[in-house]
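Hello Y.,

Per our agreement to keep a running log of every chain we model this quarter, I'm adding this entry. I've kept the format consistent with earlier entries: sequence first, then predicted structure.
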Amino acid sequence: MSLLTLSIVFYFVAFVFSLISYFVDRVKEFTRLFLSSALIFYVLHISSLSFKVGSFPFADTYGFYSLLGNVILGILILLSFKYEYLWKFSAFFAIFGILSTLLAMPAEPSPYRSPLYSLHITSALASYTFAFLGGFSSILKLILETRLKQKNIAGFFMPLSLLRGAERLSMNLSFLFLTLTLIFGSLWSRSFFGKHWVSDPKLIFVLYLWTYYAVIVHLNLLKRIKPKTLSYAIMLGMVFTVLNIIFVRHEL
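Predicted structure for the entry above:
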């Protein structure tokens, strides 16, 4: 049985235990064990594939989406060990892990062997990850603020300070990695195509994303944007990121 298949099996077992944990609290530890094990098997698969091709493992959208999903899931699992209440979403984590890992099945190994290409794609992966985490943090923050005004926070268990810090940190990290994406992309383009910039729709949209995040990051640093407006801006950045991932394609 391959490492990828083992990952999917363990995600499914984690999903089953997550459902049982709603009735039997003692099995919650098994959910954690199988979720963590599934992610480890996925990482081992990706690591072995990277070693085999000598570069970033994938060059197509299936592989990129698979990695993006599992990276986001990995961050959520790590946060869950510090913030216990996140384990309430363990069933969703398991389903998300299954779907993300399944995308790696039809993915093709990368034909590029340049370290600059690997750094370019890795930076893009990180920037999208933090764009999503920032957007989700802003959504939850706005919901919690609305409930606090209505004095109705029953069933809501996430601290407001955590969400405020998470949205700002994610926004700054997304901007940082978008910057690195453009820098490494330019250097790789120079070594592969002989010029620092190519008119590719995906790269152009990434430049738009970088400009957008540069504006909101600096407005926040200068305190020229209200907290609620900043949250909406971060959410809009997540929407732009989704549009880029789903609808914009490389033409190279």
